[in-house]
């Protein structure tokens, strides 16, 4: 949910900024993204960085090693802080998701949870006329802006945003739209996209020439190693995550079959 204040503003003059989101503990994908982006002045880690994938602690460590990084809290980051696994699940699907959140919290430890609790709802960047980075939308960390969201609805979601550029994640889908005088871009997912393209995606914002240029980039990585990590670490929710990594698609809730172990098999 959205707090009363988004966060402070970061003034950037002619800088190269990378925005990535939805790593979901897939450090193999994150490492490929970080290698691809090269020299940047700032990385904005735009939420849902740790839960569900096999290596949340390593993902957090890789991000914290970066010389200049800002964080945004995603809905799953908030669920970790809220200890959502202590709630009563509504069904077996949610029970497995809660088990994964609990496992993730144990992997990053109390100090990791304390650090996640400091992440703000959004980041204001002083690039060009200004840019707002939020995980899902300016309304809430779990209300997404999708490629198919009607322009009128997007305009309503952006009605209190002054910045001309808004960058979001959450949907795991790349998007570039211009409703109601704004440019709205989604960085997709740096862990596992949902657009049938298995390559992680992220955004580079560059105003080094004095004119803001935004580029969506995609990179290849060793998805087999990520699947191997899932299998070897006995990660809760592994069948669902393996399907999503392998197929770059969201597994439909009612088609999930927890008994099918072939969903986590990988090529040796």
Helix-strand layout with pairing:
Elements: E1 9-10, E2 16-20, H1 27-37, E3 42-46, H2 56-64, E4 69-72, H3 75-82, H4 92-116, E5 122-125, E6 131-134, H5 151-157, E7 165-168, E8 174-177, E9 183-187, E10 201-206, E11 213-218, H6 223-233, H7 238-247
Parallel strand pairs: 1-5, 2-3, 3-4, 6-7, 7-9
Antiparallel strand pairs: 2-10, 5-6, 8-9, 10-11
Query: How many DSSP H or I helices?
Result: 7
Q: What would you report as the Rg, rounded to the nearest angstrom?
A: 18 Å
Task: Give the biggest sheet.
Answer: 6 strands, mixed
| Average pLDDT reading | 89
C-alpha end-to-end distance: 42 Å
The helix fraction, in percent, is 25-40%
Give the CATH level 1 class. Answer: Alpha Beta
Our estimate of the beta-strand percent is 15-25%
Order of helices and strands: EEHEHEHHEEHEEEEEHH
> Numbering strands along the chain, what is their spatial order in the largest sheet?
1-5-6-7-9-8
Structure summary, number of beta strands: 11
What structural class is derived from the secondary structure elements? alpha/beta
Shape: globular
Low-pLDDT residue intervals, each spanning 5 or more residues: 1-6, 257-268
Tell me which CATH architecture applies here: 4-Layer Sandwich
Q: Spell out the CATH superfamily.
A: Metallo-dependent phosphatases
CATH fold label: Purple Acid Phosphatase, chain A, domain 2
């Amino acid at each position: 949910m959205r707090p009363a204040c988004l966060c402070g503003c970061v003034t950037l003059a002619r800088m190269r900024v990378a925005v990535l989101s939805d790593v979901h503990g897939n450090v193999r994908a994150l490492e490929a993204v970080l290698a691809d982006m090269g020299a940047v002045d700032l990385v904005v880690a735009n939420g849902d960085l740790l839960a569900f994938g096999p290596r949340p602690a390593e993902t957090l460590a890789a991000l914290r090693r970066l010389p200049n990084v800002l964080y945004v809290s995603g809905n799953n980051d908030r669920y970790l802080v809220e200890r959502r696994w202590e709630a009563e699940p509504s069904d077996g699907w949610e029970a497995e998701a809660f088990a994964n959140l609990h496992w993730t919290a144990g992997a990053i430890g109390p100090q990791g949870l304390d650090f996640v609790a400091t992440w703000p709802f959004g980041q204001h960047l002083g690039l060009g006329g200004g840019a707002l980075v939020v995980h899902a939308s300016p309304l809430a960390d779990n209300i997404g802006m999708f490629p198919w969201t009607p322009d009128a609805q997007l305009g309503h979601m952006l009605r209190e945003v002054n910045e001309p550029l808004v960058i979001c994640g959450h949907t795991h889908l790349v998007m570039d739209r211009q409703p109601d005088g704004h440019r709205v871009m989604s960085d997709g997912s740096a862990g596992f996209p949902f657009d049938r393209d298995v390559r992680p995606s992220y955004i580079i914002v560059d105003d080094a020439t004095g004119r803001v240029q935004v580029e969506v980039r995609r990179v290849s990585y060793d998805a087999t190693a990520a699947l191997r990590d899932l299998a070897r670490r006995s990660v809760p929710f592994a069948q669902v995550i393996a399907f999503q990594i392998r197929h770059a698609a969201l597994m439909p809730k009612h088609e999930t079959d927890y008994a099918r172990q072939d969903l986590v098999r990988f090529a040796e």
